[in-house]
Each structure stands twice: as C-alpha cells, then as structure tokens.
Amino acid sequence: MSRLVVGMTEEIKLYPPERKQKKVLVSLPEDQIKFLDDCAKAMGVSRSTFLMIYIDKHNEYIAEFVDGWLASLQVYQERLDEEKRVKEAKKMVEGLGQRTSIRRGH
Fold first, then answer.
1. CA end-to-end span of the chain, whole Å?
2. Are residues 65 and 87 in the same domain?
3. Enclosing domain of residue 64
4. 22-76 pLDDT tens trace
C-alpha cells in the first residue's frame, strides 16, 4: 500500500492490484532513474508502484508506440531490401556486359 497526498488535507491510499509480481533488473541512465524517483516521490509511492500505475494507466499508448516503431522499421527494411534488389539487378546486367543507369522516381 502507498499513500498519495492530494493538497494539504486529503490523503488517498493506493492499493496496487493483486497480481503475481516478478522482480527484474532494469538498467537505465541515472537521469531517467532520478526522473522516475522524483515522479514517484511527488505521488508518495515507490518507484515500482509508480511504474505499475503508470504502465497500467497508459498501456494503450505504450502499445501504439510499439506499433508505430515496428511500422517505421518495416518501411526502413523494405527500403533496404529494394536497394539490395536494385544493386543485385545492376550487377547481373553488368555481368552480361552492359552498363546500366537506374533512375528512381520518388
């Protein structure tokens, strides 16, 4: 249980959901740890409780971030694959004794 002080008079007790928990080691830059600790302190909770509440509250944004990240990686990978195919095709044509000039329209 942690306590969240709201204003000067109101105190709210926070009970994290009863779920199986697992302790893990996460390596972060010191400035990010200080930021997390400052946020947790401002709410009157531990770092772990803060992260649990934050992730529970914003899991849809985290999923959207991951979806966006993966989509941008796929676009980048497709571009690399296209460049590889163009280079291979150019090599094949030059292997036949013809010089090529490939233009790309974007």
1. 57
2. yes
3. 59-100
4. 899 999 999 999 999 999 999 999 999 999 999 989 999 999 999 998 888 888 8
Cα 9 to Cα 83: distance, rounded to the nearest angstrom: 64
Q: At what angle do helices 47-57 and 59-95 cross, to 10 degrees?
A: 70
What total number of domains does the chain contain? 2
> Looking at residue 46, what is its pLDDT?
93
Contact call for residues 40 and 81 (beta carbons, < 8 A): no
Phi, psi of 61 (to 5 degrees): -70, -35
13 strand-pairing partners:
3
The reported pTM is 0.54
Q: State whether 64 and 49 are in the same domain.
A: no
